[in-house]
Design a protein that fits this description.
single chain; alpha+beta; Porin; 2 domains; 4 helices; 12 strands
């Protein structure tokens, strides 16, 4: 079975094997390039896509490249709130001009990446705060920075790259299936600031493994607009670079998001800039009011307390109904007696 056929089969069967974390508003990785620690939510299907145009100039090769790129991802959460599966990739078309006087021009296009994988939330420090509830005695205590805010949510992503043969954007000449692993952390801070970090090991079983990081800082200026700044670095024997991104995003409604961003680097082999416009939309089929249960002894204790509370409420409802029935009978008897008089 060829690599293209394998990729097509896995892509077609993806909905059958999908096994996130629900929020009232869309939870998207855009407009940056990093993956947040939290997932989209159980029974939520989400599409994220963007179109980029840009230019690259290589000082040593003396070439100028006009590029068009389409990036996309589909994310789905099912089975557990901590887990989502996804397909993430991009397709690019380059028009390369030789500036050495020859005037030669070449055009080529292919997938830069296609990765199918899953992300699982290992640790969430915020669920304990939700279970404990706010401090009812102090507004200040609920709205100030604390040392515990330095503890991030942590998730792990594992995926498989599907690289096709004779692809100018990948290092291997032959078709390859190789692993990709991403460790993601996320801090949600007071004031609408979110810090996301990714540690990435990509194509680690090939002759050209790549290692890198992404750091993204996002600030929500209000309920509808946010801005972000991002630094990405990666290195391999095939290509290495440092990228700086920035941009804005707007929330149209609870399920629809649009964004605009730009990317530059700091070298001339090649120098580059890109402008990207994108969007994200989710199909929200999340029907249950669920939360992530706490693990371990603390989790068992919290569930025991919750179960006892529910039992007490049920007993109280039964006693209340019984009293109402008895009160009703007494009223009827008194009415009958009054009628006989």
């Amino acid at each position: 079975m060829t690599i293209r056929l394998r990729f097509l089969v896995v892509l077609l069967l993806l909905p059958l094997f999908t096994f996130a974390q629900y929020t009232d508003m869309i939870n998207t990785n855009r407009p940056g390039g990093s993956q947040g620690a939290f997932s989209v939510g159980k029974k939520v299907l989400q599409f994220e896509t963007g179109l980029s145009i840009g230019k690259e100039e290589h000082r040593l090769l003396r070439t100028e490249t006009n590029a068009f790129r389409w990036d996309y991802s589909a994310r789905y959460g099912v089975w557990k709130e901590e887990l989502e599966v996804s397909i993430i990739g991009s397709f690019q078309r380059n028009k390369v001009n030789d500036t050495q006087g020859i005037g030669a021009e070449s055009i080529f296009s292919n997938f830069r990446s296609n990765t199918i994988g899953a992300k699982y939330l290992i640790y969430d420090p915020y669920k304990k705060k939700v279970l404990e509830g706010p401090n009812l005695r102090s507004w200040k205590a609920n709205n100030r920075w604390q040392w515990s805010d330095l503890i991030p949510a942590v998730s792990i992503y594992a995926g498989a790259n599907f690289d096709f043969a004779d692809n100018p954007f990948t290092p291997e000449l032959d078709s390859q299936i190789s692993p990709k692993i991403v460790l993601s952390t996320q801090n949600n801070w007071i004031g609408g600031f979110v810090l996301v970090t990714n540690i990435i090991a990509d194509r680690v079983t090939t002759d050209f493994p790549s290692y890198g990081y992404i750091i993204t800082l996002t600030h929500a200026t209000n309920d509808y607009f946010s801005i972000f700044l991002e630094n990405q670095g990666f290195k391999s024997d095939f290509y290495a670079d440092q990228l700086l991104r920035g941009g804005v995003a707007a929330l149209i409604n609870a399920n629809f998001h649009v964004d605009l961003s730009g990317t530059i680097n700091f070298k001339d082999t090649p120098s580059l800039w890109y402008v990207r416009a994108g969007m994200a939309y989710r199909f929200d089929m999340h029907s249950d009011d669920e939360f992530l249960e706490e693990k371990g002894k603390a989790g068992r204790e919290a569930r025991r307390v919750e179960k006892n509370k529910n039992r007490a409420l049920k007993k109280e409802k039964k006693r209340s109904k019984k009293r109402k029935r008895q009160d009703g009978l007494q009223v009827d008897d008194e009415g009958d007696d009054g009628g006989l008089d």
